[in-house]
């Protein structure tokens, strides 16, 4: 068995599939072993320029044609967008805010019990204020045989709206005075490094139709380059903080507790979306979208917002730390739910009769589909 696995193992495919996580680990190791080069490159201009490059390529890949299909499943798309942008942002944010993190910024020694510096709390809330993932969530929905068209539409809409909602939602959990004073500066930075490159990239592919085929051909490598840019920002921010001695405030116990909080937060978000799929009487394919896609948060916008935040908010590397831990954790956790969703074992078998009528048609059809899960499994076995 082990030999068979070794023969089938493809190193190139493994590296490409886990490129972001591997690059994150390399960035952390480089920053810890030799922080000087990264700290020299750590300034807002370079970080914002890298963010601009990321969103320029995002504009190249942005497809708005899928939005035409929204009309057919408008109710599902609206519920998914509300869940991704607001419900799964505000509820975890308020819960984490109630936890005993330091009230003051890093560098202040507080003798009372604390789960860590306030930047960790800000990082968790920032991550959950983000919209749905662009690539990972859609891939998981596809693997779970969910509604891919709806997933693409939800991902596109939430990421476009997230450019506006994410800073506003995060301001609810950050220092209100600082955010109010620097609000225009933050919006100006985001407009230059995020919205403008995104628009330029989309305009280029619209005006030059041939560029679409080039983007489609090299889409995978563009995604890898974007992942590299995200990890480059992690490297320079982390190196700068290590040079300043900021991470001396953390220990192994703090990181373990942080990981535990992030796991509980994601399971909580996943359960919220599971309940939403039941209340809204979603079919299995639609439930896969809200549970897999809307439970996950994108790192691209998170990195962009963290880069644009003023220094008074806190150390940017410490703020990004929970985000870079939460991102692979959410993928790992959700991977265990793909197979149950695909085979319907996770989808509720106790749908009320009005739900069956709403989702499966007339009373005759609803009567036939007494148990949607059993029917679907029977059809799969017959095929």
Concise summary:
74% of the residues lie in helices and 0% in strands. The chain has 383 residues and is mostly helical.
Please explain how this structure is put together:
This protein is an all-alpha fold and 383 residues long. It is 74% helix and 0% strand. The protein contains 20 helices and no strands. The protein has helices spanning 2-8, 11-17, 19-33, 36-41, 44-61, 74-97, 118-128, 136-143, 148-170, 176-181, 183-207, 210-217, 219-244, 252-279, 284-293, 299-308, 316-342, 353-360, 363-368, 372-382. Helix 8 packs parallel to helix 17 (316-342). The longest helix is centred in the last third of the chain and has 28 residues, at 252-279. It starts with a helix and ends with a helix.
Features:
disordered C terminus; mainly alpha; 74% helix; 383 residues
Overall 3D form: globular
**Secondary structure: number of strands:** 0
Low-confidence runs of at least 5 consecutive residues: 106-110, 362-383
| Helix-strand category | mainly alpha
What is the gyration radius calculated from CA atoms?
Answer: 22 Å
- For the residues shown, what is the average pLDDT? 82
Number of helices: 20
Order of helices and strands: HHHHHHHHHHHHHHHHHHHH
Largest sheet properties: none
For the termini, the CA-CA separation is: 29 Å
Helix-residue proportion: over 70%
Beta-sheet strand percentage?
Answer: under 5%
């Amino acid at each position: 068995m082990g030999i068979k696995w070794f023969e089938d193992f493809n190193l190139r495919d493994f590296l490409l599939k886990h490129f972001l996580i591997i690059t994150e680990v390399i960035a952390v190791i480089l920053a810890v072993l030799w922080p000087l080069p990264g700290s020299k490159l750590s300034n807002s201009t370079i970080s914002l320029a890298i963010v601009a490059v990321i969103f320029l390529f995002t504009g190249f890949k942005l497809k708005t044609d899928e939005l035409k299909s929204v009309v057919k499943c408008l109710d599902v798309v609206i519920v998914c967008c509300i869940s991704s942008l607001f419900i799964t942002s505000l509820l975890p944010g308020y819960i984490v805010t109630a936890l005993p993190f330091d009230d003051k910024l890093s560098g202040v020694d507080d003798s009372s019990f604390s789960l860590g510096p306030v930047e960790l709390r800000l990082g968790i809330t920032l991550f959950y204020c983000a919209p749905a993932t662009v690539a990972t969530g859609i891939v998981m929905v596809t693997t779970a045989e969910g509604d891919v068209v709806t997933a693409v539409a939800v991902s596109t809409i939430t990421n476009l709206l997230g450019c506006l909602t994410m800073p506003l939602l995060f301001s609810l959990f950050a220092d209100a005075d600082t955010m109010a004073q620097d609000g225009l500066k933050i919006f100006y930075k985001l407009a230059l490094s995020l919205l403008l490159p995104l628009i330029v990239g989309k305009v280029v592919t619209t005006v030059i139709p041939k560029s679409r085929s080039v983007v489609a051909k090299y889409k995978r490598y563009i995604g890898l380059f974007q992942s590299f840019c995200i990890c480059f920002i992690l490297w320079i921010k982390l190196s700068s903080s290590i040079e300043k001695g900021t991470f001396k405030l953390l220990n192994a116990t703090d990181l373990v507790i942080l990981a535990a909080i992030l796991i509980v937060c994601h399971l909580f978000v996943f359960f919220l979306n599971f309940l939403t799929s039941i209340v809204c009487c979603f079919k299995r394919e639609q439930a896969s979208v809200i549970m897999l896609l809307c439970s996950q948060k994108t790192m691209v916008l998170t990195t962009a917002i963290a880069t644009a935040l003023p220094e008074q908010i806190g150390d940017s590397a410490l703020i990004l730390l929970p985000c870079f831990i939460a991102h692979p954790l959410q993928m790992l956790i959700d991977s265990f739910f793909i197979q149950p969703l695909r085979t319907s074992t996770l989808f509720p078998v106790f749908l009320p009769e009005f739900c069956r009528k709403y989702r499966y048609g007339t009373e005759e059809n609803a009567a036939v589909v007494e148990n949607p899960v059993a029917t679907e499994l029977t059809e799969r076995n017959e095929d």
